[in-house]
Amino acid sequence: MSADRDQEDVSIAARIKENPGPALGWMVGALLLFALEAGAVVHFVTSLLGNPVELPTLLSRELIPNNGYVKPNGVWKETFLGLPAAYAWALRVVLIYAYAFLWLVWLWRGYLVFRENYRYADWTPRDDMVDRLRSHRWGQFGAVIVFAFVVMAMFAPALGPTTVERTISNPYSHYIEYYNDDGQLENVTVGSANLGSRSQGTPDRNVGPMEYDDYGRWHPFGTLPSGKDMFTFMAAGARISLFIGLTSILVSGFIAVAFALVTAYYKGLVDLLVVILGDSIMSLPSLLFVMLLSVVLGDTWLADIYSGGFLLAVIFAGTGWPFLWRSVRGPAMQIAEQEWIDAAKSFGQRPSVTMRKHMAPYILGYLLVYSSMRLGGIIIAVAGLSFLGLGVSPPTPEWGRAVNIGQSYVTTSSWHISFIPGVLIVLVVTAFNALGDGIRDAIDPQSESGEGEGAEVAAAGGGGA
User: Fold this and answer.
1) Among 26, 70, 379, 414, which residue's CB has the most CB atoms within a 10 Å radius?
2) Is 80 exceeded by the pLDDT of residue 422?
3) Which residues form the ABC transmembrane type-1 domain (predicted)?
4) Are 89 and 192 in the same domain?
């Protein structure tokens, strides 16, 4: 028993050093996958620093271009292999999602390598959790939609038929070529072409989903009333929604876990103070409070970061941590009453070590469940704020603004402007909730029937949410 314990205390780095083969094989594959898109990562990081660096990238619009023009005889020029713009764009989208799926498979392969070669235990409770999640159809549905949404956000610049810079931010500084009705090749700014591709409710002024405009540009989701490509708008909007959601969840989750551990360990006055603070924030009307803070802080330097996206993330984190804290406070209180916590105290172990090693692992699963569900709520809240003209500042794309822009065209030929983003918002929010359900049922198999001690812990954890 003592020998097994000594083995378990060996660090993962030491285990890999003893048997480096499987880990090195997996690492080589991961580096090859990363190398395919390393240029995009470098460009993104350097763009944040204000000095973007361009490097060759495999899955890019430069390698697989779709922005070309069609000659009067029907032959396409300046597109990938002379394919029609729609086919070139679809090929790039398929390759990007295949690349992302390959990463997913390789990460799963990495988990299997760890389990087979570097984990001393033949079985852990995590194995059963993974098996239950793999058979949870509702959770798998959520995982598929969340995967598609995350890939859209991460690869937004390459997925769109065009770029935000060309069609939204600075359209009059970019040009396209097309053949006019007289068969002459003309050069026109993207902004001028947008004016001729507007969707404004009538059949003669509408570019719907899966259609070309008069300039040979392909629009998978149609165009906006301004003539800007809607798919590019939605892909860029997915990126900012994901940034706000993840940033706010990470910050609020850290605060929630810290307060839950401290209040469960010390109880008494510390718990009372946090309860008063949390309940005070929760008692305020959430939407009105967020709107008030976004207006009051709208002129600060925080609003200049990421077009107001960082400010919204901070606001949602500051107002959302009590809900996550209430969700994990119950499980933390139950863990604090266990015998091994008393034993750690009696041995003089520092409180921070006890909370980190012996308490935190037991509540992180519940935090993951409620964070997944709350992330969907944040996405729909951001869309609601943008619908009201608050939050993310225009012209930065955001899904709620598209719904607002198209609400007067719902019963016209341009129905797609509000309908598509509305459906995507509902689908993504439902998917995050479904994924949260799947994770909950994987962690606690008795939660579906509401029976057993695990269900009681879940009920105690979620009572304040």
Assistant:
1) 414
2) yes
3) 238-436
4) no
Q: Is pLDDT above 90 for 395?
A: no
- Same domain flag for 409 and 293: yes
Q: Are residues 222 and 235 in the same domain?
A: no
pTM to 2 decimal places: 0.87
Evaluate if residue 456 carries a pLDDT over 50: no
171 and 287 together in one domain: no
Q: How far is CA 92 from CA 59, 85, 96, in A?
A: 7, 11, 6
Residues 239 and 209 placed together within one structural domain of the fold: no
174-178 own/partner pairs: CB under 8 Å, 24+ apart: 176/67, 176/69, 176/215, 176/217, 177/69, 177/78, 178/69, 178/214, 178/215, 178/216
Q: Which two tokens stand for residue 453?
A: 């001690």
* CA dihedral angle for residue 353, residue 354, residue 356, residue 359, rounded to 10 degrees: 180
Do 243 and 265 fall into the same domain?
yes
CA distance 230 to 422: 13
- 3-class SS at 394? coil
Q: Tell me the mean pLDDT in the region 301-311.
A: 83
Mean of the pLDDT values across residues 222-247?
94
Task: Based on the fold, state whether residues 317 and 413 are members of the same structural domain.
Answer: yes
- pLDDT (mean) for 139-160: 94
Cβ count near 70 (within 10 Å)? 17
Q: Per mean pLDDT, which range of 59-63, 187-191, 201-205 is the poorest?
A: 59-63
Q: In this structure, are 342 and 214 located in the same domain?
A: no
- Terminal CA-CA length for the chain: 42
Residue 259 has pLDDT above 90, yes or no: yes
Question: Does residue 355 sit in helix, strand or coil?
Answer: helix
Q: How far apart are CA 7 and CA 21, in angstroms?
A: 20
Nearest to 83 by CA among 218, 188, 184, 222: 218
